[in-house]
C-alpha cells in the first residue's frame, strides 16, 4: 500500500517522468506489419507529445514552458523568423547551452540553434494521426523525406536537447538513440499512421 | 582566463568560467550601472549588449562568451542612445530607477533595429523588462518620442 501510494504521488508530482519508452523489439509480436507500424508511431508519440517537444512546436504564437506547459514568461512572440521579436529574440536570454541559475534552483535552457519550430511543424493539440501525416509531408516538414526525418529524429542536436533539458525540466522518455530506432522501425514497416 | 572587450577596452578576467557576466561587470569591473533584479532572466534589469545585441547578463556565464564584445549602459554611444536618454529625461520616465538601465538598453536596441516602432513592436521588445513602479506608459511614449527625434 505504501509503495502504491508513493508511486501515485510520484506520478502526481511529475506525470511526464512516469513514461517509459519501449524499443522496436517490444512490438515484434504484432504480426500485421501495418498494425506494427502504427504501434511504433504511437510509441514515438510519447516523445512527440512530451512537453519538451510540444513547448516549441506550438500551432500559434509563442512557445510554452515547463512540464505544465505554461505560457512563456516573459511573454514572447514567434516573430517572422520563429526567433522572437526585434529587440527581444530567443538569444536575448537563451544561449548555446543550458545555464544553471546562480543563487536559485533551476536553469535556463539553451542550445545552438534555439528557436521555435516553424508554424507548419506545430502540433500542439493535434491527434497522433494528424501529427503523423504532418511530419511525413515534405510540404510541412521542411522538405524532408523519410530518411531525412529519421536523421532529424536520431541525430539533430535540438531534438536531442529533449533528453538533456537541464535542471528543473523532465527529460523526454527514453533516449534519442531509442527514438531514432523507433523511427527507423516505423519507416521500415511502411510508416503507417494512426487513424 | 577569460578575455572580453568591455566598453571598448580589453579586459582579462581571472574568474570561474561559470561566473555570470553580471557578477563580473559589477563586482570585478565595478560597472554598477547594470543592475541585478531577479537572476533568472525574468526582469531585464541586467541587460547589456553582447556583440551588439541585447543580452541578459545574469544568465550568461563568462566562459561562454570568451572573446566577445560587451557594452554596458556606461559605454553606450550613438544617436539611438542619445535620443533615448533625452526622451527619458524629458518625460521623467524613471520612478525608483532600478530597472531603467535595462529599459534604456532594450529601448536603444529596438530603435537600432526598428527605426519607427509601433506600439506592438515596443511591447514585444520590452516585454522582458519589468518595472515594479509601472512606468510602462511613459517608457512607451519615450520610445516613440526618441524615434521621432531620430527621424529628424
UniProtKB/TrEMBL annotation, chain A:
This is Isoquinoline 1-oxidoreductase subunit. It comes from the Bacteria. InterPro entries: Multihaem_cyt_sf. Residues 1-18 form the signal peptide. Keywords: Signal.
TrEMBL record, chain B:
CDD domains: fer2. Residues 1-76 form the 2Fe-2S ferredoxin-type domain. InterPro entries: 2Fe-2S-bd, 2Fe-2S-bd_dom_sf, 2Fe-2S_ferredoxin-like_sf, 2Fe-2S_ferredoxin-type, 2Fe2S_fd_BS, Beta-grasp_dom_sf, Diverse_Oxidoreductases. Keywords: 2Fe-2S, Iron, Iron-sulfur, Metal-binding, Oxidoreductase. Pfam families: Fer2, Fer2_2. GO terms for molecular function: 2 iron, 2 sulfur cluster binding; metal ion binding; oxidoreductase activity. It comes from the Bacteria. PANTHER family: BLR6218 PROTEIN (PTHR44379:SF2), OXIDOREDUCTASE WITH IRON-SULFUR SUBUNIT (PTHR44379). This is Isoquinoline 1-oxidoreductase. It comes from Cereibacter changlensis JA139.
